[in-house]
Structures are given as structure tokens and as C-alpha cells.
């Protein structure tokens, strides 16, 4: 066995630079060959690849040969390797699944990157980025969130760009009135020669559909289009009964679940005696805790299904991504 191991090590030493020069190969080492999912007693030069592809789809120079210096080879898919970061740490670029928050809250989760009018924005909840309606467009967003040590201006990563106001209890949303007043005042300002304009915030009906907001990064290079332990999003999908889902969040990290209910109407407590009613929600099992708010929820094919915003010890409540995108006017 010692002789075989030494031969394999020598073969690796002589060929590792060549192997790592091939497209898709991210590591090379010595290990036991895996055949049909089972470990064999055969020592081999193991090539880790970002993605396993058909040999026919690779150029000859990028194919891993069956043997290297007489030692068998093996190819396994591991994905690309990266350093692990604590989800409550400061990270640049900041991926989805880590701590973020308005400068006046505790902390929530950075969900994912979306585009509005072709410009990159961070997607999370209203109560994470807009302080449950109490923020103003332009307010500082910190990564990590204040509870996790984020401080202004050192950890200032973005500015609040837009949010969908949450309607509490029986109070009307005031959408039409607010827009009419804004239009009237802007008209008067225009006649007086003023360039100042009031900005209308995205609105929703008294029965809420989403708890959502977006923030514009100060620098696009400070954010990443990957989600910790998940990778990149491949598209969107509609949440249906029995759909397997997953999320990556600040508090409980990577968790999985199943959509157990659809078309849900639910009353959610926001503290200080405030309750908001949400309709057309999805409910999954216990896959989240406080601080996971804002997490992107995906299916097994990495398609975006929803935005996590609330829950209990037994359940997780998710906004449909169709409603989030529509309310904020954003896309992937």
C-alpha cells in the first residue's frame, strides 16, 4: 500500500500543474477512485471540477485522461472552492444569505440581487431595509446589520431605493390620495420654477401581498450574485403545494422545507401593537428563525420562488416572488 501511495503522489506531483491548467479543474489530489457511487480500493489522481460535463463537450486539451503517469484518474464534481465567511461578518463582495439592515434596525438577511430599470439593487424585506415603513428613500443600509456590529459609515453598503409600504390593521393604504397630493404639489412646484419633486413610493392594497424593499449599492463590486451554500439563481418559478424549497439566511444558514399551504391569508405581528394582514402567501415548515427575514427561497433547480418574511417555531411564511417583482417593478 505504501508503494502504491508513493507512486500516486509522484504522479500527482509531476502532473498537477498540467491538470489545474485544464478548464473546469479546480483541484487535484490523491484519493480512492469512486465507481458508481462507491469507493474502490484503487488509488487515483482525483480531479475536482466545478461542473461535470460530457467528455464530448470538452476540447481535447481540457479532457482529463484515464491515467496520469500510469496512475488511474478520477473526476468528481465539487463546485468552485471559496473561503467560508460567518453570516454576521462584513463581506465585500456581499453574497445573499448574510446579515444586512437599515441603520436603525437590528439585522435581517440580504436576499438576492435584482434589477430595476437595468440597475442592480439588493432585494430584502421592508422591515429589514425600510424599518417597517419608518425609513426614507436614501437612508443608509449597513452590512452587516447594526445588531451584528455594522456601523455607519464604515459598513455603509447601499441606500434605500424603494419599498412597498405595509398596511397595518384597518388603516387604509392611502395610495390614491397620496399620489393625487404628490401630483398636485409637483404641479404647483413646476409652475413656481422649482426642480424639486415628491417621489411616490410603491404601494399595495390594504390586504398586503408583500413585505419587500430594494436598496441601491454604493458600488456594484461590493455585492455578489451568489447566495451562500446555494450559488446563483437560474430563473423563477411559482410556488405550488408539495414543492421542495431551500433558503440561505443570516440566522439558520442553509435549510430546506416543503410548501405545505398556498393561497394563505395570515395576520403577522410587527411589534408595538401593530398587526398586518397578508394574502396570497406560501407556508412552509420550520426552516427559519428571527434574522432570516429577507432570505430568497428557491426550488431544487435554483429557481426563485419567494421572499421569506415571517414565521413561527413551526412554520415559515413566504411572499410569492411574482407579487414581489410586480410590486417593486424589478426583475432578475
Residue stretches low in confidence (pLDDT < 50, at least 5 long) are 171-200
N-end to C-end Cα span: 53 Å
Determine the CATH topology of the largest domain.
Answer: Thrombin, subunit H
Radius of gyration: 25 Å
The helix/strand class is mainly beta
Chain oligomer state: single chain
Strand segment tally: 20
Averaged pLDDT, please? 89
The largest sheet has its strands arranged as: 7-6-10-11-12-9-8
The biggest sheet, with number of strands, parallel, antiparallel or mixed sense and barrel status, is: 7 strands, antiparallel
Structural commentary:
The protein has 332 residues and is mainly β. It has 2 domains: 2-77, GMP Synthetase, Chain A, domain 3 (2-Layer Sandwich), CATH 3.30.300; 94-171 and 206-328, Beta Barrel (Thrombin, subunit H). Helices cover 14% and strands 38% of the residues. It has 4 helices and 20 strands. The chain has helices at 2-20, 126-129, 175-191, 321-328, and strands at residues 25-35, 38-49, 67-68, 71-77, 94-96, 99-102, 108-109, 112-116, 119-124, 140-142, 156-163, 213-217, 223-227, 235-236, 244-249, 253-269, 275-284, 296-299, 303-311, 316-320. The strands form 4 sheets. A 7-stranded antiparallel beta sheet has the order 7-6-10-11-12-9-8. It has a 6-stranded antiparallel β-barrel with strand order 15-16-17-20-19-18. Strand 1 and strand 2 form a beta hairpin. The longest helix has 19 residues, at 2-20. Mean pLDDT is 89; it is low at 171-200.
Amino acid at each position: 500500500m505504501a508503494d502504491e501511495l508513493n507512486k500516486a503522489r509522484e504522479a500527482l506531483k509531476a502532473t498537477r500543474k498540467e491538470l489545474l491548467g485544464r478548464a473546469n479543474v479546480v483541484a487535484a489530489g490523491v484519493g480512492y477512485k469512486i465507481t458508481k457511487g462507491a469507493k474502490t480500493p484503487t488509488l487515483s489522481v482525483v480531479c475536482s471540477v466545478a461542473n461535470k460535463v460530457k467528455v464530448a463537450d470538452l476540447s481535447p486539451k481540457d479532457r482529463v485522461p484515464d491515467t496520469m503517469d500510469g496512475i488511474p484518474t478520477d473526476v468528481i464534481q465539487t463546485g468552485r472552492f471559496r473561503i467560508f465567511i460567518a453570516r454576521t461578518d462584513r463581506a465585500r463582495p456581499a453574497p445573499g444569505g448574510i446579515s444586512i439592515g437599515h441603520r436603525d434596525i437590528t439585522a435581517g438577511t440580504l436576499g438576492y440581487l435584482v434589477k430595476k430599470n437595468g440597475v442592480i439593487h439588493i432585494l430584502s424585506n421592508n422591515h429589514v431595509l425600510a424599518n417597517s415603513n419608518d425609513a426614507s428613500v436614501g437612508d443608509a443600509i449597513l452590512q452587516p446589520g447594526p445588531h451584528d456590529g455594522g456601523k455607519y459609515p464604515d459598513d455603509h453598503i447601499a441606500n434605500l431605493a424603494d419599498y412597498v409600504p405595509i398596511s397595518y390593521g384597518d388603516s387604509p393604504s392611502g395610495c390614491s390620495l397620496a399620489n393625487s397630493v404628490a401630483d398636485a404639489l409637483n404641479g404647483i412646484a413646476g409652475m413656481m420654477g422649482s426642480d424639486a419633486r415628491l417621489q411616490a413610493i410603491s404601494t399595495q392594497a390594504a390586504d398586503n401581498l408583500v413585505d419587500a424593499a430594494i436598496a441601491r449599492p454604493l458600488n456594484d463590486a461590493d455585492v455578489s450574485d451568489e447566495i451562500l451554500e446555494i450559488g446563483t439563481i437560474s430563473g423563477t418559478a411559482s410556488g405550488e403545494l408539495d414543492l421542495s424549497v431551500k433558503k440561505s439566511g443570516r440566522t439558520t444558514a442553509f435549510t430546506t422545507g416543503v410548501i405545505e399551504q398556498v393561497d394563505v391569508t395570515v395576520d403577522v405581528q410587527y411589534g408595538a401593537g401593530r398587526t398586518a394582514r397578508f394574502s396570497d402567501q406560501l407556508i412552509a415548515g420550520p426552516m427559519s428563525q428571527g434574522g432570516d427575514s429577507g432570505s430568497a427561497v428557491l426550488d431544487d433547480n435554483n429557481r426563485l420562488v419567494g421572499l421569506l418574511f415571517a414565521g413561527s417555531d413551526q412554520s415559515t411564511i413566504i411572499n410569492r416572488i411574482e407579487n414581489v417583482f410586480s410590486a417593486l417593478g424589478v426583475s432578475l
